[in-house]
Design brief:
Blueprint (H helix, E strand, L loop, with lengths): L2 H4 L4 H22 L3 E3 L1 H19 L6 E2 L6 E2 L11 H9 L2 H26 L4 H12 L2 H9 L1 H22 L3 H21 L3 H20 L8 H34 L24 H9 L8 H13 L6 H14 L6 H9 L3 H5 L7 H21 L5 H21 L3 H20 L8 H23 L7 E3 L1 H5 L3 H11 L4 E4 L5 E4 L2 E4 L7 H5 L5 H5 L6 E2 L5 H11 L7 E2 L9 H5 L2 E7 L7 H9 L2 E4 L3 E5 L7 E4 L1 E4 L4 H7 L8 E4 L16 E8 L2 E8 L3 E8 L4 E5 L2 E3 L2 E3 L3 E6 L2 E9 L2 H31 L1
Parallel strand pairs: 5-10, 14-15
Antiparallel strand pairs: 1-4, 2-3, 6-7, 8-9, 10-12, 11-12, 13-18, 16-17, 17-23, 18-22, 19-20, 19-23, 21-22
Helix pairs in contact: 2-5, 2-6, 2-20, 3-4, 4-5, 5-6, 5-7, 5-8, 6-17, 6-20, 7-8, 8-9, 8-10, 9-10, 9-11, 9-29, 10-11, 11-29, 13-17, 13-18, 14-17, 17-20, 18-19, 19-20
Length: 784
């Protein structure tokens, strides 16, 4: 290189970032060339939700309610809806869906790589070592693989290095503006983890961040001679400032979610009753650990990365942060195991609700634990690049690691991919051992290792893509995949006219997951499934489905659907089974259209029965749409009400003992009612409808009760002719509004107080941070 460039102090960083950029571009090629790779959760949950979020934000609305899933449910309060997750809000509101999805994925991969590189450099790794750390984390299983299938997981992973970077900048800062900037960076990362996955994911990021701040203030402070009480003060001020900023920025999402979880099917994070299997401690056994290191899975860390991590015990023993990443990495590995250790008991006692959250797939701690693996691998690469003369210990460690790679290859290799991965690991480390003897090649060795790591991880990702779990990975054109089929167009037309909800049904599209039967979501890539307009396509298309795939559901709706079907179902799912078509509870949900396969196969009496009983209003080569003529209207008036115990309404209506057209079942004392002189004159006419509001013109010659075929939630507020009135729970699930005699206009709006309070706190937090930053900038300019 020219002498002038060789003297430029930033050329190692420029070269390393160029290499990171090249790795990111190659990963984009694998993810998007020939179509976008999608997985079960991304296709059936997150992309429909994020598109709905973007649509509402483009219209200038806050998406409090989703009327297109479960017959209506909270949206902003849903822990994984994307509300207050700034990348989803920005990207999906600014770009069409086909462009938003790849932009969203690549933003996260790039941010994870750059933030990990910056963290390595701030922690004094060489540029080559920071590059090894960056590519090891960016392309590991919890990031690139889960970018396809499981957005919430890889979103939390992305913000882990950002959180540590901000904390490190704040802790070592001598300038108030730099310290404040570090707090804001770490606080932003915390807020985004809370917005992406309030619960298990955010808890893991907070656990890692808290441990890191404690390490850097109490154990390895920036000023080593600092007194203990000052170290404790540093812990409190740095930790407190980051948490205050993080929760303040996330308040508009956190407060509604904390309230909603308490009335959901997973209240408090509990998995009980029919869903107790979900809380069975799983974890990774030693045998599984070896399998997941050797076999490309969603948890694949990379063979060379692991061997460099092991080598860091010797090579990086003098690195200032090695103690933290070694202890945290081993702790994460221990917590991922299916054993009840003293560490488990310590955290269960000291951390609120950690036990009940961690028991649900404890191996998920890898989403932050893999950052420790990547940083230690980078530390080994950094140590190699800085050794002028290879020490005997270095040769021994690398030679032992290369020998271990070849031994594992001989013992475990049963596929070409394993042979390639472990062969590359052995050759890479053997080459490092050889090239370290050549002074001019010493700086090249870490770069060669980075290239081998990228190749290993991307080849592993390619292998996983061909045999991924949960219905597999599928390459699709996003716009075509989500484009409405002809049956969906028919339902969209009816939705504009307000003519009722729908559901899709085909019991043949089933799979067994964790011993539970699930419908539709494992067949998310099938055209047969898409034609049924299931898997949350209603949310994407703006048509009202009473089904859906979502782990968080209103508890009353879950109970309602269990009574309707006659049995519970896997807690992620909300689907109507064949037995539910005979229940009056189905009619009560305003379900007017049922989408079924057009070709009635032999041995399918369920389809034949439905087709015989219900008239067909639409048919094409793939599906038929039947009309449920017994469906209740969107709103009606009754003049009789009974008070019953909570839960009794479902039994009384399902058994036919109570006709909901005539009598409302309430869980409190009914309001004053009277029989109508002319019942035929009663009317409830829907005059305006939106996602978060309804307007109905009513008339009755006697006091009555307006019943709406709409799911109740305490966030709904009602007015009659502009005067506020109560919203009651009728028939276990529905909304009811007491009506005086005469003609009135009833308006309902969804305005939960937790959302308003949260927005106020978030707004105050943003305003305060802007004021503090501008104040510090002004002071700096004045000083100059």
């Amino acid at each position: 290189m020219p002498p002038s460039f060789a003297r430029w102090p930033y050329w190692p960083d420029a070269a390393a970032l160029a290499g990171l950029g090249a790795a990111t571009i190659v990963s984009a090629f694998l993810l998007f060339y020939g179509g976008t790779l999608i997985g079960q959760d991304s296709a059936t949950q997150f992309y429909p939700w994020y598109e709905y979020l973007g649509d509402r934000l483009r219209d200038g609305d806050i998406p409090g309610w989703n009327p297109y899933q479960f017959g209506g449910a909270p949206f902003a309060a849903d822990p994984q809806s994307g509300w207050m997750y700034f990348p989803a809000m920005a990207i999906f509101s600014l770009l069409p869906l086909g462009q938003a999805v790849p932009t969203f994925i690549m933003f996260h991969l790039a941010l994870a790589g750059v933030a990990t590189y910056a963290l390595g450099r701030v922690l004094r790794l060489a540029a080559s070592g920071a590059l090894i750390a960056a590519v090891s984390f960016q392309l590991s299983g919890p990031l690139i693989s889960r970018a396809v299938c499981c957005p919430a997981s890889f979103e939390v992973s992305t913000w882990a290095p950002v959180a540590l970077l901000g904390a490190e900048l704040a802790i070592r800062a001598h300038d108030k503006l730099v310290r404040l900037t570090g707090w804001i960076i770490a606080g932003l990362a915390v807020s985004q983890a809370l917005a992406a996955w309030l619960g298990q994911g955010a808890y893991y990021l907070l656990l890692m961040l808290g441990a890191f701040v404690a390490f850097r203030t109490l154990i390895a402070p920036a000023i080593t001679a600092r007194a203990l009480k000052l170290r404790v003060w540093d812990l409190l001020r740095h930790g407190g400032a980051i948490l205050l900023i993080g929760f303040g920025l996330a308040a508009a999402g956190v407060l509604p979610r904390l309230a909603y979880i308490q009335r959901s099917n997973l209240a408090g994070g509990e998995y009980s009753g029919h869903n107790s299997w979900a809380a069975a401690i799983g974890g990774i056994t030693p045998g599984m650990l070896i399998d997941r290191i050797l076999d490309p899975t969603l948890y694949y860390p990379g063979a060379i990365t692991v061997l460099l991590t092991i080598s860091s015990v010797y090579l990086a023993r003098r690195w200032q942060a090695s103690g933290f990443f070694m202890v945290f990495g081993l702790s994460a590995l221990l917590l991922a195991a299916p054993w009840d250790t003293p560490l488990h008991q310590l955290l269960y006692v000291t951390l609120p609700r950690f036990e009940v959250l961690h028991e649900h797939r404890p191996e998920r701690i890898s989403m932050v634990g893999f950052l420790a693996i990547a940083m230690l691998a980078g530390a080994s690469g950094s140590a190699l690049s800085r050794e002028r003369v290879p020490r005997p210990g270095t040769r021994a460690v690398l030679g032992g690691a290369a020998g271990l790679a070849l031994l594992l290859l001989a013992l475990r290799a049963d596929s070409a991919m394993e042979t390639l991965g472990w062969g590359a690991a052995g050759l890479g480390l053997a080459g490092a051992l050889l090239f370290l003897s050549i002074p001019t090649m010493r700086s090249v060795v870490p770069a060669l290792l980075a290239v081998l790591i990228v190749a290993d991880l991307l080849l592993g990702f390619q292998a996983l893509s061909r045999r991924a779990p949960f219905g597999g990975f599928h390459r699709v054109d996003i716009e075509s995949y989500y484009a409405p089929r002809s049956a969906a167009v028919f339902l969209e037309d009816r939705a504009v006219e307000g003519k009722g909800r729908y559901l899709g049904y085909d019991a043949a599209l089933r799979a067994i997951a964790d011993g539970q039967q699930v419908l539709y979501r494992y067949q998310f890539a099938s055209d047969d499934t898409a034609a049924l307009v299931v898997n949350n396509r209603g949310t994407l298309l703006g048509i009202e489905d009473i089904q859906g795939y979502n782990p968080v559901q209103p508890q009353r709706f879950t109970e309602y659907l269990t009574a309707l079907n006659g049995h519970p179902q896997e807690y992620h799912d909300a689907n109507v089974y064949f037995g539910g078509f005979n229940s009056p509870l189905l009619h009560l949900l305003n379900v007017r259209y049922i989408v079924i396969p057009a070709n009635e196969e032999a041995g399918r009496p369920d389809l034949q029965t439905l087709d015989r009983v219900l008239p067909t209003v639409y048919e094409d080569s793939r599906v038929a749409i039947l009309e449920n003529v017994d469906a209740m209207p969107r709103a009606w008036i009754v003049h009789d009400a009974r008070q019953i115990e909570t839960g009794e309404a479902l039994r009384l209506i399902d058994s036919g003992q109570v006709d909901p057209r005539q009598t409302a079942l309430l869980e409190e004392e009914p309001p004053p009612l009277a029989p109508a002189t002319n019942p035929a004159a009663d009317r409830a006419e829907l005059i305006d409808i939106g996602p978060d509001h309804l307007e109905i013109r009513t008339f009755s010659d006697a006091p009555g009760l307006l019943i709406l075929s709409e799911a109740y939630d305490p966030g709904w507020r009602a007015t009659i002719d502009g005067e506020e009135t109560d919203v009651l729970i009728a028939d276990h699930l529905l909304r009811a509004v007491p009506l005086p005699a005469g003609e009135h206009v009833v308006e309902l709006r969804y305005a939960p107080p937790t959302l308003r309070i949260g927005l106020a706190i978030t707004g105050i937090t943003i305003f305060s941070l802007l004021m503090l930053v501008s104040h510090q900038v002004r002071l700096r300019w004045q000083a100059r």
